[in-house]
Queue: 2 jobs
Job 1
Amino acid sequence: MSFPKSLKEGIQNLEKKTGEKASEMKTVKLYALMLEKMDASLSTLTACEHLALSTNCIEKIANLNGLKNLKILSLGRNNIKALTGLEAVADTLEQLWISYNLIEKLKGIGVLKKMAILYMSNNLVKSWDEFSKLKDCPALVDLNFVGNPSKKRPQLQTLTGTRWPKCWAN
């Protein structure tokens, strides 16, 4: 199996495989392709509601500008270090799956006002103070932070002023 050299090539291969136009696909699965960048070709996915880019080598969230319908973003098992670049999907994103990355801080998470689900297990969040940034995500109801190296575990409600029906943490 040969891997695509770029996201653009990965999208072209997906179109050939499915016989569908990428611009009309609601779910786009481009996982385990050794992709390194989220490049400008993402803007062609105008109908996309679920973008799966898990198990690649992506280091940075970028180029989400054209994804006006995106509800689910799956970026687990990459090399992402920061939650920057999400502003473009702040008005639509409901679920962020970003477990098994290299994230230490939650800076940038507050723009996701409609996010109901955040799966962020097995990252590098050491300080429980980082969780106070979740108070800016009023729709959040399902949260997974298991496997982060935080030492002390205060009540999340104390940090954020919010209760979550589903919350998993160390």
Job 2
Amino acid sequence: QSGHYGRAEKKAHRKSLALQSFQKTPAVLSSPTLAKKTTGMTPLAGPRLSADQLKQHYADCIKLSTENKINAKNAFGLHLLEYIDTILQEKSDNFQVVGCTIDAGAKIYAGRVDAVHGDILKMLGSMGNTEAEGENETEEVGDLD
């Protein structure tokens, strides 16, 4: 009986951890109007940038891209993808600029995918460890009978 209770308790704990991670989701994803009021962020777009800020951010993203410094750690801090349509509309006459912008966007997207993939692997690994511990406890309790 105690082994079964331990398993149920661990399952409830994992469920609460998952719920906590969903609650940490930015307000941008949960409520667009609330997000605009409280954080100054547009839905799924990140911070609102002025024209000058956007130009500077674009330059920073292109610089990081050419230096191959876009990775899983900084990809979510780069908002080129959220503004790529605006940028490409302004610079659509220069194919080299369009190509570099798309390349930087692809690197940012790849970095974001890598970050999410790594987080999922960590989560699955920790879930596997807790499940294996629960099975070992159940076997030990069964051996006492």
